[in-house]
Design brief:
mainly alpha, single chain
């Protein structure tokens, strides 16, 4: 890619970030983005086929990173010997959440788009996807407890969904409100302690 092409892309990215943050994906105007970037519509379509493609270019990497990191944490926990999993319940997930927080703070605008301005795109389902991954991990862990002779009482699926969704909403509130990073680290630590204790109580552990 030539220097001129990179400059054009940077102008488009900057204009798009401004437009999407202000208006959200649905209300954002491609015409405004092109005008603010100072490029022609033809030049824009030389890089992207649509507003959707442009939004993907802005946040796709960050979205995929977060989900991949979360899936990796679930896999790492599942690979711990069953008898050791209860004593490591918060370690793997805690490290993962901490890494995700630091990553999100390095890409605040992208995650603000994902969390607050992505309605009408696949990215609006981030929390739903994370809840699905966490729910499967929870069920796998309950099966481990059963095999260890430490079965959990029945957990209503609706309550389970509410609690897991609430956990991620709490986590992402730190990012949405741009809390100072040191405060965010502290709140994350307290949040983890709260949810870990709560889940252990519900699971009868």
């Amino acid at each position: 890619m030539s220097g001129n092409e990179q400059t054009t892309l940077n102008l488009i990215f900057s204009a798009a970030m401004q437009e999407f943050l202000e208006k959200g994906f649905k209300s954002a105007s491609l015409r405004n983005i092109v005008k603010t970037a100072g490029v022609t519509t033809g030049a824009f379509y030389g890089y992207y086929h649509s507003k959707e493609d442009l939004f993907e270019a802005l946040v796709g990497e960050q979205y995929d990173f977060l989900l991949d990191r979360f899936r990796k944490a679930q896999k790492e926990f599942a690979e711990i010997p069953p008898e050791e999993q209860p004593n490591n319940l918060s370690d793997v997930s805690g490290e993962c959440m901490y890494e995700m927080l630091l990553y999100a703070y390095k890409h605040l605008n992208e995650f603000k788009l994902i969390l607050c301005r992505s309605q009408g795109t696949r990215f609006s389902k981030l929390i739903d996807e994370m809840v699905e991954i966490e729910t499967k991990g929870t069920h796998d862990y309950l099966a481990v407890l059963e095999k260890l002779g430490r079965p959990s009482p029945h957990i209503d699926e609706r309550l389970e969904h509410i609690l897991i969704t609430g956990m991620f909403n709490t986590f992402f509130e730190l990012i949405i409100h741009e809390m100072p990073i040191e405060e965010a680290k502290y709140y994350l630590k307290e949040m983890r302690a709260f949810y870990t204790a709560g889940w252990m109580k519900i699971m009868g552990q």
